[in-house]
Amino acid sequence: MDQLLAIRVFARVVEAGAFTRAADSLDMPLATVSKLVRLLELHLGVRLLQRTTRRVTVTPEGAAYYERTSRVLKEIEDIDSGFASAHQRPRGRLRIDIGSANASCVLILALPDFIARYPDIRVDLGVSDRQVDLIGENVDCVVPAATSTSSR
């Protein structure tokens, strides 16, 4: 049994007040929802829900279990969404050094779109035609000035 899934299913049954509504909201077969709750009850050794042909009620043990597990489920949701959002929206500092010709022709024109697309990235832009020490100057990216290498 996937205990975390069973806890989520149990919580949804409690919140929905019925197995059928919980199954619909979870997009699961009713038999699967019922089986997961039954397996969770067997695992715990207590009855969490009182079932009749007309309704489902939460037992005192079920209410206590729901209260404690709902906090855990909320914490897991927060952790998951924190990691998911961290990967969806890049953030941090990006230090770029670029040659003056490339800066005025390419980067300066593209910078507003980049900042609009990635508002959580702080761009530190250095414009120079000198040799840059990536490690010593803590630069992430260098776009050197174009040089002519024509041979005669």
UniProtKB/TrEMBL annotation:
Superkingdom of origin organism: Bacteria
PROSITE patterns: HTH_LYSR
SUPFAM superfamilies assigned: Periplasmic binding protein-like II, Winged helix' DNA-binding domain
Domain (HTH lysR-type) ranges: 1-59
Keywords: DNA-binding, Transcription, Transcription regulation
Alphabetical list of Pfam families matching this protein: HTH_1, LysR_substrate
InterPro entries hit by this protein: LysR-type_TF_proteobact-type (IPR058163), LysR_HTH_N (IPR000847), LysR_subst-bd (IPR005119), WH-like_DNA-bd_sf (IPR036388), WH_DNA-bd_sf (IPR036390)
Cited PANTHER family: HTH-TYPE TRANSCRIPTIONAL REGULATOR (PTHR30537), LYSR FAMILY TRANSCRIPTIONAL REGULATOR (PTHR30537:SF72)
Family: Belongs to the LysR transcriptional regulatory family.
Annotated protein name in UniProt: HTH-type transcriptional regulator DmlR
The species this protein was found in: Paraburkholderia haematera
